[in-house]
Amino acid sequence: MFNDQLAKLEKAKADLLQLESKISAERVAALAKLPSDFGYASLDLFIKALKEAAKTGGKTKGKGARGAKSGAAKAAKPAPAAKAAKAGKRAKITDEIKAEVKVLSEAGKTGQEIAKALGISAPSVQNIKKALGLVKPRSAVAPAAVEAVEAAPVAEVAPTV
Predict the structure, then answer these.
(1) pLDDT class for 155, splitting at 50, 70, 90?
(2) What is the distance, to the nearest Å, from the Cα of residue 139 to the centroid of all Cα atoms in its chain?
(3) Which one, out of 6, 42, 69, 132, has a CA that is 20 to 30 A from the CA of 62?
(4) What percent of the chain has pLDDT over 70?
(5) Residue boundaries of the structural domains of the chain
(6) Directed axis angle between helix 95-106 and helix 111-118, to 10°?
(7) Distance CA 115, CA 123 (A)
(8) CA-to-CA distance for 73 and 83, rounded, in angstroms?
(9) Measured between alpha carbons, how far is 161 from 152 in angstroms, rounded to an integer?
(10) 10 within 8 A of 18, measured Cβ to Cβ
(11) Which residues are CB-contacts of 109 (< 8 A; sequence separation ≥ 6)?
(12) Where does the chain have alpha helices with state H?
C-alpha cells in the first residue's frame, strides 16, 4: 500500500514536470508571436512600444505620448542595432526553469548545454541540480587518502609526567 502511494506520487511528479515543460514551451511560442500579432515588423519596435506604453500608462494624447510619430512612420524607420546584454545580469530562476533543468539533465545533457539552452549560467544549473538531488555530493576526503591514513602505522606516544 505504501509503495503504491509512493509510485503514484512519483508518477504525479513526473506528470507535473512534463506539464510544466509543455506550458513553458507553449508560453515561449506565444511570446514569440506577440510582435506580429500586434502588427509590429520587428521585436525591437514591439519592445519600444511596450516601454512607451509603460511610461504613459497606456494613455496617449493627440499624436501620442511626448509627440511620438505614428505607427506607420515608426515602422518605416530602420531599427537601431541591438545593444549587447549587460554582463553579469542575473537570470530569474523560475519553477519552469528548474523543471527544464531536470528534464534536460535526465536526458543526458551536460551542464553547459543546459545553461546555453535555458539562458542561465552553468553554476546556476549546478545549483538547481544539487537542490533537486541530481548530483552526488563531494566527499570530504578522497577515498585513496582515507585508505592511506588507515594503512599507516600509528606511532606510540610516551605519556608525559
Answers:
(1) low
(2) 28
(3) 42
(4) 66
(5) 38-74
(6) 140
(7) 9
(8) 22
(9) 28
(10) no
(11) 117
(12) 2-37, 43-56, 71-76, 95-106, 111-118, 122-131, 143-151
Residue partners of 45: CB distance under 8 A and separation at least 6: 35, 74, 75, 79
- Predicted TM-score of the model (pTM): 0.35
The residue behind cell 594503512 is: 151
pLDDT digits (tens, 9 = 90+) for 33-78: 888 888 888 888 888 888 888 888 766 554 444 444 444 444 445 5
- In this prediction, residue 128 carries a pLDDT of 94
Distances (CA, A) of 79 to 51, 83, 103, 110: 15, 11, 37, 37
Cell numbers at 98, concatenated: 528548474
Residue with C-alpha cell 510544466?
Answer: 20
